Amino acid sequence: MRAHAASYALAYPASHVRIELGRPGPDAVTVGAAALPLAGFFERGGRPEEPVPAWRTTLRDRAAHG
């Protein structure tokens, strides 16, 4: 992990950063829950979610009841 991060970082800032194993603290559940929507955001390259067209939602709902 350190080698990968260093290969993409600028030399000066990277020399002032440490990468270490984290230790779960009292807020671990809260931090984990907060990370879930961020994971999706970063998977999309920082783009917001595309709205689902109404016709697609209607078709999905009808298929579920049919």
List the helices and strands and how they pair.
Layout: H1 2-8, H2 11-14, H3 28-43, H4 54-65
Features:
66 residues, mainly alpha
Descriptive overview:
The protein is mainly α and 66 residues long. 59% of the residues lie in helices and 0% in strands. The chain is built from 4 helices and no strands. The radius of gyration is 20 Å and the shape is elongated. The mean pLDDT is 88.
| Straight-line N-to-C gap | 49 Å
Question: What's the story with the biggest beta sheet?
Answer: none
Give the oligomeric state: single chain
- Kindly provide the radius of gyration, computed on alpha-carbon positions and rounded to a whole number of angstroms: 20 Å
Principal-axis shape equals elongated
Strand content: under 5%
- The percent of residues in helical segments reads 55-70%
Structural class, from helix and strand content? mainly alpha
Uncertain regions spanning at least 5 consecutive residues: none
Instruction: Please report the total strand number as a whole number.
Output: 0
Number of helices: 4
Order of helices and strands: HHHH
* Averaged pLDDT: 88
